[in-house]
Every structure is written in C-alpha cells, then in structure tokens.
C-alpha cells in the first residue's frame, strides 16, 4: 500500500553559483510543505507527515569560487544542522579538456553501464527465405533460446534436451538471410534501432527525412542507414569527483536516512503496541500504521520482520472484512517471504490477492515474476491467461504474450502452446491498433508452424502477416507472405485460393511499381513467381521440330523408343562401315529427358529449331492465364579471333536489346496459355539459333494473371481486355537434376548426383537437313493389302547431302522396288500386258538368286548421287499390311551424310513413326499331300503333290465400321526352286473365285516337280514363279512389288529389337533340325504360295473401295497344315521344383502332349458310287473315341445329317467304321474332314484330349443336270 509512496524525505539541491542559496532552500521547503498539506490525495504521496529534509549545495569547481561555497555551506549547517547538509564538488576537469578526450574512443564512459546500449537495426516481420534444416549444427541457437526472460542467470535446462525439443516443433531461426537475432519482445527500441519504430513520431529528428521515403526502406537490401553517434557522458568528472559522489551517498544514508528510518520504526512500533479496535479505516489507524511499519521494514531489506508484520496486519484486516487491505497484506507477505529466500513461499497468499483484485494487474505481474524466478512457468502462464478479458485488448495482448514466453521457457518447452498464445496475442494487438506488435507476434508464431504440414494454420498466419505488412507499407514482406499462400499443398477451397491469388497479384504489382519508380523501369532481372509450378526434371529438349508430314506419320522424338532407335542406328552404321562398328560410336540422341544419358551436351545446328518441352503444373483449384510466354536463355557466341565473348541474354525489357537478342536466337512467343485447376500441361517452345556458340536455357518468362471467373466476373457481361486484368511479369527457373550416382562407396553413403547437360547446348555450323514427306499414306490397311505411296525427299539445309539410306523395325512392311521395271504410280501390280516383250501365254518365270538382295538397310538412289540444297526428289514405294490385325507402329530411320566432310558430325539421322490400323481380310490354310504317282527319296517327294487350300473371309459385316464385303481371288502363284503349280480341275474351268463375308472356299492345286529346271538352262540357281490366274489379266508375280514382298517374307527378316535370348533359342532349334536333316528331307517341300486377291471394302460412310493385296503361305512339309497367319511360339515354362519323401509313391509319368494328340489315326472315305447329292462317309478312330462334336460349317451349302454324335471303345490295333451322312446344296469343292475327335486313355472320361486335325478329304460335287 505504502511502497509506492515517497519516503518522508526530500533532497533539495541548489548550485553554489546562485545569488541567494539559503533563500532558495527555504522556497523549496515551502513548496514541499504546501504540496503535502493542500493536495494530500494527489501524487506525489508521502509516507508519513514528518518529512526529513536534506540540503545539498552543488559546487562546480571549474566555474565557481571555493571560498564562497565554503561560506554558504557553513551558513547552511548553522541554519539546518550539520547532519542534513552536504557540500558536493563536481566537474574538476575543464570543458576544453573534456572535449579533447572525446576523440579517444578508448576513454571509459562512467555512465555506460547505466544506459541502454543501441542494437543493430533489424526489420520487423517474418523471415520467409530461411533454409529449413532438421539436423543442422545451428539448431542449438534456435528461436526458443532467444526469448528467455525473468532472470539473467543461465538456465539449468540441459542443452541437449533444448535442442531436441526445439527441433521437434520449430526450425532454427539463426540461419536467417540477414543474420538478424530475435531480441526480447518487450525490449525498448529507439530510433537508432529501427527506423520503422520512430517513423510515426513527429518529434523525431529524422521525421522529415523519413516521410520523404517509403516505409519499406528498412527492408531494401543493400541500403545503409546512418546511426546517430553518441558522445561521452560525465567527461568533466575526475576520479576525485567520483569519490566525492560516493561519499555523498554514504553520508546521506548513514547520517540522515537510516537514523530517520529507525526513529520512524520506533514510533510506529509504539503506536502498534498500544492499538485499539477500530471500525473505520483512516490514514492514522493502528492497522495502517502496522502496514507502514511493514513497508518500511521491507524497503530496508528486513524481510523476515516485514513478513511477520504483514502477516499480523493480514489477520486484522481479515477479521474486520477489509478485503482490499487484506489482499495488499497477503501480496506483500508473499513477496517478503520470497525476498527472504525461503524455499516454501506462500503462493496461496498471492492467489488470494489476485482473486480479490479481479481486474488489477499489479499483483499478477509481481506474482508471475516470483513464479518465473522459481522456474514455475506453467503456474505463471496460467495466472497471465486468467487475467485476460474482453475489456482491454492491449492488456490482454501483453498478458497472452507473456504467457507464451512462459510456455517456451519451461524445462521441456511447449512450443505449440507458445505459438498458439502468440497468435492470440497478435490478434489482440491487431484489435488494439498495434500493427507492429501484431506483426511481430505472428512472425514469431510462424517459426513454429512453418514446415509442419499444418497448412490451414500456416495459411492463416501468412495471410495476417501479409495484411499487416501491407498496412505498414512493407510491400516486400507482404508479397513474401502472400506468396506462401499459393503453395502446391494448399487445402483451401477454390474461392479462398482465388482471394489469396488476388491479394498476391495486387500487392506484388504495387511492389514492382514502387521498385520501378525508385530504381528505374525494370532495370534488374525478372522476379520469380510462385505459379505455375515447373516439373523441372520432366523437361524435354528436342533437336528439331515436331512436324506432322502426313496423316499417320510424324517425326518421332518419344524417349520410350530410344532402344529401338539405337538398334536402327547401329544397323545403318554397320551397313555404311562394312559391318564394323567404330570404337568412337555414340548413339545419336534427338530427345533428351530425365531417362536418357545427359552427360554430353546436345549438339544443335544453325538455323535448325530446338524445341523445349516444359510441364506447367497448376497446384491451385482456380484457372491461371499466362500470356507472352517465352523461353529465357543465355548465349556465349564463338567468334573467330576472340578468346572471350560477351554473354548475351534475353532477360531484358529494352526493346532494342530484345531485338538484337532475337536476331541471334529467334525465340518463340506463345500469346496465351490457360491452365485449369490442378492441371498438368506440357508446353513446347522453340529456339532457332543463327550463330555458333554455347546456348543455355535458364527458364521461362510470362505474365501471370487469373481468369475473369476467378474474380467473380459475370461471363455474360462485357469481356475485359488483358490490360484491365491484374497481371505481373515474372519468370521461373529451369534447373534439372542429374541421376543419383551409386557406384562407389562414397556415392552410396551420400547423395551425389551426376551431371545433366540437356539444357546446355552446343551450336555448330549449318548442316544439310533432310525432310521426308509420305504422300498417299493410308491410315488403314487390310491384312496383306499392298498400297502404293510416294516419298518426297527435300534438302531444306544449306549444303548438299548424299549416301541416303533407310531402315525400319519392320523391314517386310515396305519396298522401293528392285525387280524389273516399276509400276507407274499409283498402280500396284503389273500385268502381262503392261510388260513389253512378254509372252501372254507364259505362266512361268524366274529370278536369279544372285539378283536377290534382302537386307534391313535399303539404299535410296539419288540423282547424281546427291541431293542439293532446296531440291526435292520423289521415290515410289509400296507398303503391305501386317498379317495380324490391329494397330501397328512402324519406325523408320533415314541416314544421310553431308557431302562436305565435317569431323564433328559425320552423319545425320531422321526418325519417323507411322501408325497403321490393319483389318482382318483373308486367311489361307494349305495342306500338301502326296499324289498317286509320288515316291519318296532322300531328295524329297518326286512326281506331284495335291495342295488343298482353304480360303476364308474373316471380315464380318458391322454397322458404321469398315468391313470387307467380298474377296475375289485373282491369281495363285508359286515361288520355288523346284516346284510349279497347276489348277486341279478336270474341266479346266477357271471361273472367278469370290468369297463373301465369313465364308470359306476350298481350292485344290497340283504341285509338280520341275524335271528340267531353268537352272540347267542358264547354269545358275534361280527362283521359279508359276501362276494360276482366275482373272482375265494375269499379274507378273516375278516383278515389283509382288516378288519383293515374297522374298522379304521368305527371308524371314526379324525385327531389330528382338533380344539375344530369342535369337539363341532360334539357333538351338535350327541346330536340332540339322541333326535330323536326312530324315526331314523325305517330307520337305520348299514352296511358297502367293495368293493375289482383290477386295471390295465398304467404308464407314458407305463408300465402296477396291483394294488389292497378297498373302503368302510357306509349305515346308507334306501332310502338315500351314497358314498365312503367323504363329508365335510361346516358350514352355519349367515346372516348379518339388520336394517329395522317399517313401511316397512318385506320380505316374504322363506321356508328352505331342504323343497324346496323336493317339488315333482317322480319315474320311468317300463312297462315289452313291448319288451326287448323297455321300457315305466313313470314320476310322482307334482306342477310346468319345464325343466327336462337329464344327459349324463355314457355308450353308454343306451340313451333316442324321447321327452326328457317337461314342466307341477301341482295343489296341483295332479299327472301327462309323457311317456319317452329309448333304450338299450346290456344286463345288468341299473338305468333308471337319470332325472333332476326343480321346482318353484312362478310366477318367473327364480327361478328354482333342486329336490333331488330319489331312483334308476333298470331294468335288458336280451339277446333276
């Protein structure tokens, strides 16, 4: 109660230079008495009525006279008494001497230890560009250790526990970009410390200057501020003066103050001992005199006596229900006990006092200081929180902030509680108008929530920081805060993200306008924007443009086909180097991605485009609009005669510089790109160099804006122009990361990444550049269809090229023609009438084997063996549809060399990919059977063989889809060294053969061994072609393209991408066949049938088209079915390893599948003695024949009648005859052996095995009329 009052004493000080010091002393004493008597309730209040007066005569040695001062002092002692008077000499050093001593900075300042030292200026707000680390060595100096308060003694908490706890919840703040440290939140700041703090003070000497600059000047990097230099203090005081001051203080305490206090305590003690009961408290009541006695004892550090006196006064106040007086006594009793150093301090006294005071803060502040000194931070925080209310936002903010500091200074810091209460404090600071304090509180809380995946809390803090920074004109901090709201991990709804984006664009545009006004219009580099996000490692660099030359054919730069391109390139290099691959050979890359080997710099050429594909990712749910999108690059030209050239870049805003840069590297500009919410969009941009040198792609630049819908603009209203929307110009850097190295032990133990130079290009001089156009290239082909196309080769470069070659992954797909004269485009086949000097009645021709040259690599002939710049040459070609229906990709690689030898680029490649959809058309199955006059010998069957051909139209009529309505067989040709074919029909009627949709046709031919081969006539080996035509126009099967596709099919050119394992398996299988060559030769045929057909195709729109094609069937053996449809052998899987016991019975060994499918031999015998429309067929099965299910007939002209299902049991070597009846509706050739025979050799009838299809049984049905 009385601790805040003045002790009843007054020190009156008068200078010795005064004209009448005694009168002045009396006037001062009268003023004190007048104030005490007339205004007793106003400040200052006095401890007791009797005031002790102490008179000090201050004498300046350098200016005053010592004799005069002594005389005045003697007069004072005689007037007031010697024990209350003192003469103090000061300033023994002259002012001139003191001024000269100020220059010496080493001279001690006697007052420095009592004054606040100026600290380095630090900007307020959050630090956003802090490198976050969880295990760095600087974490021990993190943020929590900077907010300790309450005592200056070092904390007893373990440093290791502090570091571990801090790392769990917050990131270290010692790694800030400008080296700032977080001072105590309540530290007093001066105008030297922070220009922001003294900006609003009109009395500041820097006020005029600061108002002329922007508030964000403190945040501008690279600016220096001049601090006010301080002079020395007390420089005129000598050591003797210091001693005199100490003597004055000692005499005042010993001679005046302490005796007066002892006297007052005796008086008060006497009054307390003779007290009587009272009912009204006045200033002279005995209880209040006891309180005065306790306060006086407390002031003079008699804490134990003070505590006993407070305790006694407390009982009296409590008995008289003087609650406020009782609370005061309780409060001071607790403080006295604490100051006495007692371990068990009565904290419940303070709790009772605080509860009584309700809205008073004094007791809480005193109590919390005591609790913090005893390291009871949790109890102190609770007391701070208990006192917060809605009455005063500023007071509540201060208390919440102090509570937060209590949480962070606990033995195990509660950092999340600290951050939460700092946010509450910042909110109350903001409500009270204290924006700077609110900004500081939120900035400290952000250090805890940052990087902890508490995205919503972090968004709230960043948004508040942005708003507060903007209100304080700290535009740079505001921009950084709003930038962090646009992260890819944002969980806000679309409307909230749109609001964040609007705030960011608005503030950032103001910041750019401000910087443009201060430093000049866009004088520096472009700023980095947070949106959209670039997927850097997915960046592709494509050498050359992606031009679609024809429908279904394009320049291929897909990195997934890299292995195919490597094999095609190796084949071309081997063909050009006589089968030897150079040691220095390195595969040519035209598409560089994160999956390719990017250790070497890509090589580009002058005047050739370089395409860079970047992936733009919009992490937000709102649409983004990018305008004027372009690549950023830096270029170092290589000029002859200059060792070091000047680096050129296009990251400038000057139109003149951009024009010059565009002349060196022409840069494509995309007008507008719209990114929908959460969209990942690939964008391709091109650079065209016009000078040799080193080119580096550094990033992209663009204008960032938002769509009108994001701003809530009605789409039906008037459309705004781009200038009316908020847009900012910025950039994004492209920085790719190489593959992680994992070879050495050091690389495995640490994260080491290899180089990735896909964005660092080397530009070389101009080269020839080939462009290939595929004319008349179809999107759809029938299986086996032959189509004529035209290839146009154009040299769009500046120098000539030669040695043009091509290869493909499917060499049997195309041919350029190599046998005889070529058909005129767009014709496909040549007829006998088209060939001059040809015998129209001849059905046989031959080609020498020496003229046959089948290879993966094809040379393309050029006029004068070169192609000059800007010239074009057209070359006809023929393509054939794959025998398997579906979508097929065919890859072409064109190889060419410059006529002028260049050491760094010996050849160039052009890669194309074609996609063709093949539709099913015709299926051919052929079985060769020995004729009646055939004999077997070591050289194979002699005489003749019957070829039974089954032709089926696989196409089915479908609505709104193309299908084959009818297939007409024009001609069947045979290509063989020994065999010729003839039509097998006694009537020799070669009428048209037409096969409708899903119909099957039987065709019988006779193969005759040529006894007098053409080889004996010319003395050279040759391939003979014999034709059986069913059309008026016979096709020359020995000419292009029929013979070309025949030889390519017969040579069995395998795709280049087949792995070595399959090649090894093929070699092994061929070796096994060679072991039984003498046995196999007896049944070998060695002929190939070429079925030439014409199809009527109905397109989707109903248009009728006529297409032609050919199928090939290689007949290798007799009594074996061969088809035009290629079968792929599936490797047999090895059975799993089994472990069985020795006493268990082993499983019975089953025969091989090859054996079980040939258990019975059955054939169909036709009784020709019956009528032509009624035939008697006999079936000869053996063993256990069960459930012979007949197949569905391919034509309605032939069907089984009568019993069609039977079951028989056969003994070994037994034969059975089964009679079946068939009905034929019209004349023709029919295969009646269309039966399914199932056999089992065990008692289990469920294990039925389908027997292999035997040779056909052909019957000719003639008309009965």
Automatic annotation (TrEMBL):
<protein>
    <recommendedName>
        <fullName>Trafficking protein particle complex subunit 8</fullName>
    </recommendedName>
</protein>
<dbReference type="InterPro" id="IPR024420">
    <property type="entry name" value="TRAPP_III_complex_Trs85"/>
</dbReference>
<feature type="domain" description="TPPC8 second Ig-like">
    <location>
        <begin position="783"/>
        <end position="910"/>
    </location>
</feature>
<feature type="domain" description="TPPC8 third Ig-like">
    <location>
        <begin position="913"/>
        <end position="1113"/>
    </location>
</feature>
<dbReference type="Pfam" id="PF12739">
    <property type="entry name" value="TRAPPC-Trs85"/>
</dbReference>
<feature type="domain" description="TPPC8 C-terminal Ig-like">
    <location>
        <begin position="1161"/>
        <end position="1240"/>
    </location>
</feature>
<dbReference type="Pfam" id="PF24544">
    <property type="entry name" value="Ig_TPPC8_2nd"/>
</dbReference>
<dbReference type="Pfam" id="PF24545">
    <property type="entry name" value="Ig_TPPC8_1st"/>
</dbReference>
<dbReference type="InterPro" id="IPR058541">
    <property type="entry name" value="Ig_TPPC8_1st"/>
</dbReference>
<feature type="compositionally biased region" description="Polar residues">
    <location>
        <begin position="114"/>
        <end position="124"/>
    </location>
</feature>
<dbReference type="InterPro" id="IPR011990">
    <property type="entry name" value="TPR-like_helical_dom_sf"/>
</dbReference>
<dbReference type="InterPro" id="IPR057651">
    <property type="entry name" value="Ig_TPPC8_C"/>
</dbReference>
<feature type="region of interest" description="Disordered">
    <location>
        <begin position="114"/>
        <end position="151"/>
    </location>
</feature>
<feature type="compositionally biased region" description="Low complexity">
    <location>
        <begin position="129"/>
        <end position="140"/>
    </location>
</feature>
<dbReference type="InterPro" id="IPR058540">
    <property type="entry name" value="Ig_TPPC8_3rd"/>
</dbReference>
<dbReference type="InterPro" id="IPR058538">
    <property type="entry name" value="Ig_TPPC8_2nd"/>
</dbReference>
<dbReference type="Pfam" id="PF24546">
    <property type="entry name" value="Ig_TPPC8_3rd"/>
</dbReference>
<dbReference type="Pfam" id="PF24542">
    <property type="entry name" value="Ig_TPPC8_C"/>
</dbReference>
<feature type="domain" description="TPPC8 first Ig-like">
    <location>
        <begin position="556"/>
        <end position="782"/>
    </location>
</feature>
């Amino acid at each position: 109660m009385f601790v805040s009052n003045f002790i009843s004493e007054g020190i009156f000080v008068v200078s010795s230079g005064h004209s009448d010091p005694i009168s002045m002393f009396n006037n001062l004493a009268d003023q004190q008495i007048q104030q005490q008597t007339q205004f007793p309730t106003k400040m200052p209040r006095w401890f007791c009525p009797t005031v002790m007066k102490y008179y000090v005569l201050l004498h300046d040695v350098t200016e005053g006279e010592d004799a005069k001062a002594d005389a005045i002092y003697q007069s004072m002692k005689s007037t007031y008494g010697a024990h209350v008077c003192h003469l103090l000499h000061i300033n023994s050093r002259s002012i001139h001497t003191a001024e000269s001593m100020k220059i010496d900075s080493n001279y001690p300042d006697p007052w420095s230890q009592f004054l606040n030292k100026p600290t380095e200026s630090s900007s307020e707000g959050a630090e956003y560009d802090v490198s976050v680390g969880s295990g760095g060595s600087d974490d021990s100096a993190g943020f929590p250790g900077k907010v300790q308060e309450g005592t200056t003694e070092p904390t007893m908490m373990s440093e290791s526990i502090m570091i571990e706890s801090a790392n769990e919840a917050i990131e270290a703040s010692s790694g800030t970009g400008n080296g700032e440290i977080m001072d105590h939140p309540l530290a007093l700041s001066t105008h030297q410390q922070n220009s922001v703090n003294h900006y609003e003070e009109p009395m500041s000497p820097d006020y005029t200057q600061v108002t002329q600059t922007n508030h964000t000047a403190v945040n501008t990097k690279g600016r220096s501020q001049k601090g006010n230099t301080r002079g020395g203090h007390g420089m005129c005081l000598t050591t003797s003066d210091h001693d005199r001051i100490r003597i004055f203080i000692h005499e005042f305490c010993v001679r005046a103050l302490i005796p007066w206090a002892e006297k007052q305590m005796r008086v008060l003690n006497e009054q307390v001992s003779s007290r009587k009961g009272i009912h009204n408290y006045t200033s002279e009541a005995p209880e209040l005199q006891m309180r005065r006695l306790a306060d006086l004892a407390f002031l003079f550090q008699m804490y134990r006596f003070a505590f006993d006196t407070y305790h006694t006064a407390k009982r009296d106040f409590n008995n008289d229900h003087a609650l406020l007086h009782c609370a005061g006594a309780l409060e001071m009793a607790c403080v006295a006990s604490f100051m006495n150093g007692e371990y068990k301090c009565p904290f419940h006294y303070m709790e009772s006092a605080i509860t009584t005071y309700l809205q008073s803060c004094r007791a809480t502040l005193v109590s919390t200081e005591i609790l913090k000194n005893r390291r009871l931070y949790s109890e102190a925080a609770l007391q701070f929180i208990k006192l917060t209310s809605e009455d005063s936002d500023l007071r509540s903010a201060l208390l919440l902030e102090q509570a937060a500091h209590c949480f962070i200074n606990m033995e195990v810091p509660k950092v999340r509680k600290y951050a939460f209460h700092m946010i509450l404090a910042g909110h109350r600071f903001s409500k009270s108008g204290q924006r700077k304090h609110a900004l500081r509180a939120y900035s400290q809380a952000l250090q805890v929530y940052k990087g902890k995946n508490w995205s919503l809390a972090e968004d709230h803090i960043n948004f508040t920081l942005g708003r507060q920074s903007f209100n304080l004109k700290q535009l740079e901090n505001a921009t950084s805060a709003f930038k962090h709201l646009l992260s890819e991990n944002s969980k806000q709804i679309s409307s909230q993200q749109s609001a964040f984006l609007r705030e960011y664009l608005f503030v950032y545009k103001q910041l750019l306008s401000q910087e443009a006004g201060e430093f000049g219009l866009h004088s520096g580099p472009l700023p980095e924007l947070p949106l959209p996000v670039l997927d850097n490692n997915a960046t592709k660099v494509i050498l050359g443009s992606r031009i679609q030359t024809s429908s279904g054919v394009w320049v291929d730069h897909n990195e997934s086909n890299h292995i195919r391109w490597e094999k095609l390139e190796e084949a071309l290099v081997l063909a050009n180097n006589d089968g030897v691959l150079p040691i220095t050979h390195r595969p040519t890359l035209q598409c560089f991605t994160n999956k390719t080997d990017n250790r070497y710099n890509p090589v580009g050429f002058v005047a050739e485009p370089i395409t860079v594909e970047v992936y733009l990712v919009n992490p937000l749910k709102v649409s983004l609009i990018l305008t004027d999108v372009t690549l950023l690059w830096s270029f170092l030209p290589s000029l002859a005669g200059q060792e070091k050239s000047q680096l050129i870049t296009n990251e400038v805003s000057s139109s003149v510089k951009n024009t010059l840069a565009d002349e060196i590297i022409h840069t494509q500009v995309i007008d507008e790109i719209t990114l929908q919410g959460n969209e990942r969009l690939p964008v391709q941009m091109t650079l065209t160099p016009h000078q040799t040198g080193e080119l580096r792609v550094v990033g992209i630049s663009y204008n960032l804006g938002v769509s009108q819908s994001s701003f809530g603009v009605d789409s039906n209203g008037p459309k705004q122009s781009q200038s009316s929307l908020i847009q900012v110009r910025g950039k994004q850097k492209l920085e790719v990361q190489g593959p992680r190295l994992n070879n050495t032990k050091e690389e495995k133990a640490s994260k080491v990444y290899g180089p990735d130079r896909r964005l660092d290009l080397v530009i070389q001089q101009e080269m020839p550049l080939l462009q290939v156009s595929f004319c008349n290239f179809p999107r759809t082909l029938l299986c086996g269809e032959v189509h004529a196309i035209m290839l146009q080769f154009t040299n769009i470069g500046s120098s000539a090229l030669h040695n043009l070659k091509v290869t493909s992954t499917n060499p049997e797909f195309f041919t350029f023609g190599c046998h005889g004269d070529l058909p005129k485009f767009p014709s496909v086949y040549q007829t006998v009438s088209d060939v001059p000097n040809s015998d129209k009645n001849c059905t046989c021709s031959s080609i020498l084997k020496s003229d046959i040259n089948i290879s993966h690599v094809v040379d393309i002939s050029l006029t004068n063996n070169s192609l000059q710049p800007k010239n074009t040459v057209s070359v006809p070609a023929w393509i054939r549809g794959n025998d398997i229906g579906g979508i097929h990709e065919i890859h072409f690689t064109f190889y060419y060399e410059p006529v002028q030898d260049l050491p760094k680029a010996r050849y160039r490649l052009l890669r194309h990919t074609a996609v063709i959809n093949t539709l099913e058309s015709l299926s051919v199955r052929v079985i060769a059977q020995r004729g009646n006059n055939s004999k077997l010998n070591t050289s194979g069957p002699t005489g003749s063989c019957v070829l039974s051909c089954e032709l089926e139209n696989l196409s089915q009529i479908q609505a709104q889809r193309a299908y084959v309505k009818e297939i007409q067989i024009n001609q069947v040709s045979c290509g063989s060294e020994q065999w010729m074919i003839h039509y097998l029909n006694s009537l020799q009627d070669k009428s048209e053969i037409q096969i409708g949709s899903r119909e099957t046709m039987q065709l019988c031919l006779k193969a005759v061994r040529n006894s007098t081969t053409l080889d004996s006539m010319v003395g050279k080996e040759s391939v003979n072609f014999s034709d059986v035509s069913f059309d008026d126009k016979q096709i020359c099967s020995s000419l292009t393209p029929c013979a070309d596709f025949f030889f390519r099919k017969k040579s069995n050119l395998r795709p280049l991408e087949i792995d070595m394992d399959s090649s090894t398996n093929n070699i092994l299988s061929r070796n096994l066949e060679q072991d039984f060559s003498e046995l196999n030769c007896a049944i070998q045929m060695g002929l190939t049938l070429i079925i030439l057909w014409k199809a009527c195709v109905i397109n989707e729109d109903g248009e009728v088209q006529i297409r032609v094609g050919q199928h090939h069937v290689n007949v290798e053996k007799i009594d074996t079915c061969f088809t035009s449809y290629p079968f792929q052998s599936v490797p047999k899987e090895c059975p799993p390893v089994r472990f069985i016991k020795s006493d268990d019975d082993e499983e019975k060994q089953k025969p091989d599948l090859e054996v079980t499918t040939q258990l019975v031999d059955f054939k169909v015998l036709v009784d020709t003695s019956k009528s032509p429309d009624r035939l008697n067929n006999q079936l000869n099965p053996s063993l256990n024949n069960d459930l012979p299910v007949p197949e569905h007939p391919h034509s309605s002209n032939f069907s089984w009648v009568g019993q069609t299902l039977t079951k028989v049991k056969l003994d070994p070597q037994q034969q059975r005859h089964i009679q079946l009846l068939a009905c034929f509706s019209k004349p023709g050739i029919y295969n009646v052996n269309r039966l399914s025979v199932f056999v089992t050799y065990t008692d289990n009838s469920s294990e039925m095995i389908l027997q292999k299809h035997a040779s056909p049984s052909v019957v000719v049905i003639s008309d009965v009329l």
